[in-house]
Amino acid sequence: MHATTSIAESPARRRSPRPTTEYSHLLSAVQATGLFRRRYLYYAVKITLLLTALAGTGAAFAVVGHSWAQVAVAAALALVLTQIVFLSHDAAHRQIFQSHKANEITALLLGTLIGGVSLAWWNNKHNKHHAAPNQIGKDPDITPSVVQFYPAATPPRSRLGSFLQDHQGWWFFPLLLVEALNLHAQSVHALVTRPTLKRRRTELTMLIVRLGGYPVMLFLVLPPGIAATFLGVQLAVMGLYLGSSFAASHIGMPVLPADSRIDFLRRQVLMSRNVAGGRAASFAMGGLNYQIEHHLFPNLPRPSLRRVRPIVRQFCHDSAITYHEVTVFRAWALVAGYLNKVGLAGRDPYQCPMVSALRPR
Q1: CB neighbourhood size of 160 (10 A)
Q2: Among the four residues 55, 262, 272, 360, which has the most C-beta atoms within 10 Å?
């Protein structure tokens, strides 16, 4: 399988892995630092600032009125909503409060009522991703759809289909312009068709208010053309921002077959990519830039991720495990290049040495 970097261990540093012992040693080292303690002041300030920014976009909306300058307000609203969704991600991972119920309520209010994404649907999908990142048949984030994340079993029949698949890396990012709409649609579809989902009625009510009331308000207040443009810009900017932040983390890293066996530590480190940039990157990407640390310790508070990074990086070095970190622009280039290679590989299958090595014998 094509990967963004070689993850083979050098012969001089190769050693017999001890999966449980290695991760437990790393976990103990992190626990000893006290970094798992809740960061209530950080999150109180974060939530207050974001809700203030949301109110500020509402005030700007009222002041601008029937003007095409509302396009700028729509873009600003998209940025704020994406940051709120990032924050709901923290709550869903129980990073904010000690109480599970408090985290759940926060994730519901921020992610479902304000962000418009079902918490029950997202939790089910995201937990599977964390359990088996980039593993075929187990990670829903790489399930083949419009985009192929690994070579397709059968190539497209039409010339147009072949062209699009061969060049999917180039139109992947433009496709993210509809990602927010896709998340809204999947949330509603899951809640309507899956009656066993937790808090189904509560979330449906929230989504009706958020996804129904918001567009109605736009068309009642603004002329139809401006209202439609406002809604389109907000959805497009939010989708691109959210999608490109998540895409940098795993696409282009090794993809494992369903029958592969790999210990937890290597599964999380080798299938994830960090984005360099420190606090600026952490703010812009909602902490998703520390993807390796987040996958190793999902409930670690966001501000603690940068502080645990040196510990994880050194541990990986000592254990001969490749720790992958690049700039965000390099990450996006790797994503595009990898997806193009996958598209071409649909006609000329390839085999990854790592995949072969990890297959059970």
Answers
A1: 9
A2: 272
Judged against a pLDDT cut of 60, whether residue 351 lies above it is answered with no
β partners of residue 325: 274
The verdict on pTM exceeding 0.70 is yes
Tallying the residues shown for the chain, one arrives at: 361
**Residue 39 contacts residue 301 (beta carbons within 8 Å):** yes
Buried (b) or exposed (e) across 231-262, using 16+ Cβ within 10 A? bebbbbbbbbbbbbbbbbbbbbbbbbbeebeb
Helix (H, G, I), strand (E, B) or coil at 358: helix
What's the one-letter identity of residue 313?
Answer: R
With contact defined as beta carbons under 8 Å apart, do 241 and 78 qualify? yes
What residue ranges in the chain does DSSP mark as E strands? Answer: 274-275, 325-326
Interatomic CA distance for residues 351 and 71, integer angstroms: 47
Contacts of 37 (CB under 8 A, 6+ apart): 301
What one-letter code names the amino acid at 134?
N
Strand partners, 256: 135
Q: Does the structure show a pLDDT above 90 at 228?
A: yes
- Using CA atoms, how far apart are residues 271 and 336, in angstroms rounded to an integer? 17
Number of H helices, E strands in the chain: 17, 2
Q: Quick one: pLDDT at residue 346? A: 53
